[in-house]
Structures are given as C-alpha cells and as structure tokens.
Amino acid sequence: MRHLTKIGVYWGMVWAIGIGLMLPAAAILVGGPSDVLAASNVILTGRLELEGRSDSSSALISAGTYQLQPNSDGTFEMHLEVDDGYSMLIDAPGYLSAKAEAAVQGDTTLDVGHIILLGGDATGDDVIDILDLAFIASFYTTAEPQADINGDEQVNIIDLVMTATNYHRQGPIIIGLDAQLRQMISEAGITPLEAGPEPDTAKVALGQALFFDKVMSGNHDMACSTCHLPLQHTSDGLSMSIGVGGLNGVGPQRRNAPDRFLHPRNSPDLFNRGQPELVTMFWDIRVNGSKGGFTSPAGDMLPGDDLDSILAVLAMFPVTARDEMRGMPADFEKFGNEMALIDDEDFIGMWEALMDRLLAHEEYVFLFNQAYPDIPADELGFQHAANGIAAFIIKAFAFANTPWDRFVAGEETALSDEAKQGALIFFGKANCNRCHAGNLFTDQLTHNLAMPQVDPGNNKEQPGIDLGRAGETDNAEDKYAFRTPMLRNVALTGPWTHAGAYTSLEAVVRHHLNPEQALYSYDPYQLRDDLRDSFQSDESYINDQLAHLDPLIATPTELSEHEVEQLLAFLQALTDPAAVNLTNVVPQSVPSGLPIDK
Q1: Three-state SS string across 570-587, please?
Q2: What whole-number distance in Å separates Cα of residue 40 and Cα of residue 176?
Q3: Share of the chain above pLDDT 70, in %
Q4: Strand, coil or helix: 419
Q5: What is the dihedral of CA 244, 248, 254, 259, to 10 degrees?
Q6: Are strands 75-82 and 40-50 parallel, antiparallel or unpaired?
Q7: Which single residue of 262, 394, 487, 587 could bond 441 by disulfide (Cβ 3.0 to 4.6 Å)?
Q8: How far apart are CA 315 and CA 241, in angstroms?
Q9: Which domains does the chain have, with CATH numbers?
Q10: What is the pLDDT of residue 212?
Q11: What does the pLDDT read at residue 459?
C-alpha cells in the first residue's frame, strides 16, 4: 500500500466527464509540461465524485507542494504559483489514481470539470483485479474500512459489484482527457458524419449486378469487385492491382501474367465514397468537381449532366483503362474482345460498346428499365450504368459507427483512453489533420510525402516513375504529389500509399514522422517477392522526391514509442465493426452467368 505525505491513501483512477475545459492562456499536454516563458498564478477548479459515495472529502488533491481535500460535495479550488507548469494527482482510499499535467503561460484559471474516481482498488496497487475481489470477499458482511469501497460501513454485494464493474481498469489517466479532446474536435470543425441521400433502390440493384459482373471487362475476366473485393475490405490486398489477364485467382495470391502489365497504382478502398462533400477522386485527382461541373480525362465527351455524383464519374473510367479492365489490342484475336480495338481516346465508342454488351442480356434490360423507367433502351448510356454502380457503392460501403463517430456524437466511453491520447496527438502534436482534415480525414488535395515508389509507376516515357498529380498538370510543383487518402477503416485497407509500398500501418505512420529518413531506409523486403526488385532506389530520383517534399511534412515530428502506439490506437478506432465482414453485399449470381470475385 502506498502513502502520500501525512495522509495514507490508495491511488485512484478517474473517468473524466468533459464538461468544458477553459483554457484562456494554457495548453494541456499529453506528455507533460513543455517550455514556457514566465511564472504563472494558476487556479484549478472542478468537482470530484467518488463513485458510490455522497461525500468526497476523503480524497487528496496534490500539485507539487500544494495539497488540499475537496469539500464534501466534491468542489475544489486550488491556487498555485508555478514556473513552467504543474502535475496534479488525485487520490482516495479504495479508488484508482488520476493525474493531470499542463504547461501554462501567464495567469490562468483551469476548470478540469466533473471527475469521477472509479472504485474497487482495495489493495491500493492502482489496478482493479482478482486480488481486490478476493480481499473484499474475505471481509464480506464485516465493516472493514479497506474493503468497504462505498463507505457505508458494511462490506456487501455493492462493493463487489462496483469492483467487478471496474475489473481490469488501472490508473492513472489524465484528468480532463475528454474535455481536451472535445475542445480539439470543436476547433477542427469535426461533427458526426452525416450520411448523404439514400440511393434509389432500383439503381442499387442494377449497380450490385454490374459491380460483380465480369461482362464489364474486355476479356470477361475482371469485375469491379476483382480490385475491390468485399473479403479484402473493398481493396484487393495487393500493393499494385493486377487487372486483365491476372492469374491465380484474386486477392493477395493473384499474380501478373508474363505478357501483362501491373496496374501502376494501389487500389483504393471504397468506404464512404458517396459523401456529398467529396469533390476529388483518384490518386492524381484527375476526376474532380461537382454536379454540373465535372473535370475528367474524357473532357467534353463526359455526359456530365446525366451523372448523379462524382462517384458516378469515377465509375466511368476503369472500364476504359487497358491495364484495368479493357484489355490489349491482341486480345481481340485471343478472346474476341471487341473493346480492345477501340482507340484509347474514343471514350464514347468504349462506353457504347459496353452498353451493347450489357443490353444483350435480358436481365440487364430488366434492371435498367427498373432503374430508368422513363428512358427508352436505345437512349440508355453507360452513364446510367455508372450511376447504378455509384448507388451500390454508397449503399454497401457507407459506415459511420466507428468508436470515433460514437465519441464525437457524445458517447464518452466509446474510445479507449489510449485512443483518446492518440487523437490528441493526431490533432495536436503530430498535426496530422492539416492534411487528413474534416469528418472524412482528407483535404482532398495532393501532397508529396516522398513515399517509396514501386514499379511500374505511371509514366510511359520513364518506366518506374510516378509523377503523381504532375502527370495530369505538367506542373513541376505537383511532382510526386498524391491525393490525401481518407482514413475511415484505414486499419483494414493495406497495403498503404499510392504504390502500396508499406505493408503495416505503423510503417506508414513512421514515414510521416520523418519522410527523408524513412525513404532512405526503406526496406523493399516487406513487399511480395515479385515486387522487391522494383523499388525505385535511384539516388537522383529520391533526391528529386525530397527536393519537392511538401513543406507541411518537411520538418520531422518527434514522437515517443508510446505516442506512436497511441496514435495507432486512434487510427484503429476509425474502424466500423460492421466493415470487417462484407460478405452480405455479394450476390448469388450476375446476369452474365460469369463467376463472381468476392
């Protein structure tokens, strides 16, 4: 049992209920005080509650040499004179511990809010475990003070239930953690994620069939689902996607055929892609804009007026890409692939040929008629198919019930303390939200983070190089810049980066902390064996990447090992449990009768 100065106490833990942390001239820190400029007079106020008790005066609040006991109703006001900050401890017999550390600058008042200490630490070791339950049980029906957690002068079932409820809790944690995080959330403009309009049911049914049907590809061997597998959480588990002609099935075991090319970029996930605030798509944001003003590789050929959303615009293009779904010219002779002979710039010709295929199936005629009853079959275009695909993606892959979402909506216990600490780092010390901004955790812009480049790149003139956004703009300032990915369900969607260069989320986080060091020390052996030799390690290329490094990330960020763990805990908390298993979105069959990749 531990003791403080003149009063014997047990350490206790708090559940901080954030009811408004006022910071007129102070900054609460996760890791402790930082440098400040001058001494400060600090007033700490709040209300302490001992779980199960009406009188809180047995607690002791300490800050350096300052100590006081709260009033019986738990209110307290502590006056401190500090040089650079303070560390406050709150203790009470039978309860877990609480602490707060802050740096201050200038005179200030801090309201640490309503604090509830959790009971059950009968043995005083700052952990509620089987030893506490056994100790309390050994004094059952007696008046032993150490076992009488709620102070009613009788050791009974109430003490055991309280202890069991808090089983495996341990202290100390930071007081006011919820309040700190809610203040940061408010400053960042984060609100609960609101779903967009519910998509039309008939369009969803049409889109589901199209999404899983290999009739959409030139050689009848690829579907949207081949690169966006439900079993791989809407990606494919590969660093680089493998399109037409792929071997050995789907997912991580899929291999490229000798006469084929890898798709030059990682297949992004499809979670929450129907949010109305989205205005950019693809790694190089070559599709951007909003209803009535879309920009795309098709230029004036894009039937933008008939497209429901930017997600529908995106759905127009995978079917036109040779290495994704359309196939190579030689595939006409091999597979009767009529789409392979269409000129690469003839988007209208490609879309019309694909519609001819689809409408040759009676079931698709029916599905299109259900979705578009007022449009004659001979006036249907692939834009109507794209609207269906978008509707299905919106319906099937929209998730907003993550622990983070629940916390933002007001559920204090939805996030673990470790994840809350990670969120403070994300929005504070690490400044991740400068780019991963808003409810979707993306600014929808492109940034050069000097991510490792893996073959084949996306530059036909210089194989192995991917210029990113500059490949679309021809602007040197855009070299190696890629769209900020959304982070919803990010823990499920590896490998990560535009080239799938990192196979662990921790490695991606560490790259962000020091891009130059990470790039020079990159280990290609984390990649699959057929990609290891393709890492672009040429020194001149790496130097050029670093020369164009985004200033937002150029200065290394120092995080401790524990802070990295906390940041990862926060990223894990962006996972919706319902997104883990997506088998329910897979149909039993598709109109073409072709096998389904799921």
Answers
A1: HHHCCCCHHHCCCHHHCC
A2: 20
A3: 92
A4: helix
A5: -40
A6: antiparallel
A7: 487
A8: 17
A9: 3-187 (2.60.40.4130), 201-396 (1.10.760.10), 431-558 (1.10.760.10)
A10: 99
A11: 62
